[in-house]
Amino acid sequence: MTSDPNNSQDIRLGHADRGFVGKITRLDALVTGSSLSPQELEQRLVEMGFVEGARVEILHEGTIRRDPIAVRVDSTTIALRRSEAMAVIVE
């Protein structure tokens, strides 16, 4: 099942604040600002557990420009740059 890319409830994880809890709907690494290629970024995110349907929660954010963020994906905690989190679409 794929999400509607025009769903107004979907946001990029990189825009979410500490305490956000949601579900991953898809990955979109084309406009993230990451130094990685879109394909490499998507592959790394999938390997870390950022897959469609996974529960995601922002646990902590850094003090400088709110970066990096600590994210719990299902039962795993991961540190992630906000630019990389921009590839994760959540609802």
Can you walk me through this structure?
With 91 residues, this protein is an alpha+beta fold. It has a single domain (14-90), classed as SH3 type barrels (Roll), CATH 2.30.30. The chain has helices at residues 38-48, 82-85; strands at 11-12, 21-27, 55-61, 69-73, 76-80, 88-90. The chain has a six-stranded antiparallel sheet with strand order 1-6-2-3-4-5. Strand 3 and strand 4 form a beta hairpin.
> What structural class do you assign from the helix and strand content?
alpha+beta
What's the CATH topology name?
A: SH3 type barrels
Spatial order of strands in the largest sheet: 1-6-2-3-4-5
How many helices?
2
> Biggest sheet, in brief?
6 strands, antiparallel
Identify low-pLDDT runs. none
Percent of residues in helices: 10-25%
CATH class: Mainly Beta
* Structural shape: globular
The CATH H-level superfamily is: Ferrous iron transport protein A (FeoA)
Mean pLDDT: 89
Radius of gyration: 12 Å
Name given to the CATH architecture: Roll
Distance between the termini: 14 Å
Number of strands: 6
Counted up, domains total 1
Strand and helix order: EEHEEEHE
Strand content: 25-35%
Q: Would you spell out the secondary-structure blueprint of this structure?
A:
Elements: E1 11-12, E2 21-27, H1 38-48, E3 55-61, E4 69-73, E5 76-80, H2 82-85, E6 88-90
Antiparallel strand pairs: 1-6, 2-3, 2-6, 3-4, 4-5
